[in-house]
């Protein structure tokens, strides 16, 4: 059954803004032309706890919306999905991965990696290494970027051995989004333990973009 959010977004479409949004995203996706604050106001009732369906129904809806062409429906779907993060079971890695590898671009990947995937790996740490080993062997840069970024907000709980492993596995990647993610995770962790980041940069050869991104908050360092 067609979800009412689709009709609501359609009724409020703005072709001029939609064209600008599509151009910003390199015309990879269609848009209704809803700016983020307005979109969030429109979808707010559907994200209220009292209106949330059971998890199984919700996850089916997420998949249905993910297959729609308009990007605003993907944004709604991932924010809807995030309402169930505390209910994630071990089997739900499958849907997280399903979302990561479809309609992939940095805007959804960064949300999925740092929210549902981050929560999943906190809840099921024993799943981390096997999953990341598998993702490292793929040529899917979005799985690889997710492997880097899921610990972005872990701070003192960051698994440094795993972080080192993932970064060094991807250190030679020529992909912009991988190089950028490596720098981003190091820059973020420097807020927690700058000395570790300095030592890591000194001991390992990374792509120049990764190093520049990592050093943005520690420009006066010796690295």
Briefly, what is this?
63% of the residues lie in helices and 0% in strands.
How much strand? under 5%
User: What is the H/E string?
Assistant: HHHHHHHHHHHH
The helix tally amounts to 12
Q: How does the major sheet shape up?
A: none
Distance between the ends: 57 Å
- Tell me the structural class: mainly alpha
SSE layout:
Blueprint: H1 4-11, H2 15-24, H3 36-43, H4 55-66, H5 71-82, H6 93-100, H7 106-123, H8 128-137, H9 141-149, H10 160-170, H11 176-203, H12 208-214
Please describe what this structure looks like:
- The structure is a single chain.
- This protein is mainly α and 223 residues long.
- Helices cover 63% and strands 0% of the residues.
- The chain has 12 helices and no strands.
- It has helices at residues 4-11, 15-24, 36-43, 55-66, 71-82, 93-100, 106-123, 128-137, 141-149, 160-170, 176-203, 208-214.
- The mean pLDDT is 96.
Notable characteristics:
mainly alpha, 0% strand, 223 residues, globular, 63% helix
């Amino acid at each position: 059954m067609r979800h009412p959010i689709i009709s609501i977004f359609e009724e409020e479409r703005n072709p001029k803004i939609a064209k600008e949004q599509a151009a910003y995203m390199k015309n990879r996706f269609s848009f209704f032309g809803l700016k983020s604050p307005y979109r969030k106001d429109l979808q707010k009732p559907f994200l209220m706890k009292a209106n949330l369906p059971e998890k199984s129904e919700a996850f089916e809806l997420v998949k249905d919306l993910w297959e729609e062409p308009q990007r605003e429906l993907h944004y709604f779907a991932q924010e809807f999905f995030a309402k169930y993060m505390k209910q994630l079971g071990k089997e739900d890695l499958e849907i997280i991965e399903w979302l990561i590898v479809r309609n992939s671009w940095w805007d959804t990947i960064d949300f999925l990696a740092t929210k549902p995937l981050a929560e999943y790996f906190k809840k099921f740490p024993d799943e981390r290494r096997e999953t990341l080993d598998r993702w490292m062997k793929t040529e899917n840069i979005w799985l690889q970027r997710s492997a880097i970024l899921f610990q972005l907000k872990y701070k003192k709980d960051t698994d440094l051995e795993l972080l080192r492993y993932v970064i060094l596995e991807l250190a030679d990647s020529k992909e912009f989004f991988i190089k950028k993610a490596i720098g981003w995770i190091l820059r973020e962790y420097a807020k927690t333990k700058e000395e570790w980041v300095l030592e890591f940069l000194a001991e390992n050869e990374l792509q120049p973009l990764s190093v520049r991104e990592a050093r943005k908050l520690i420009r006066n360092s010796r690295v």
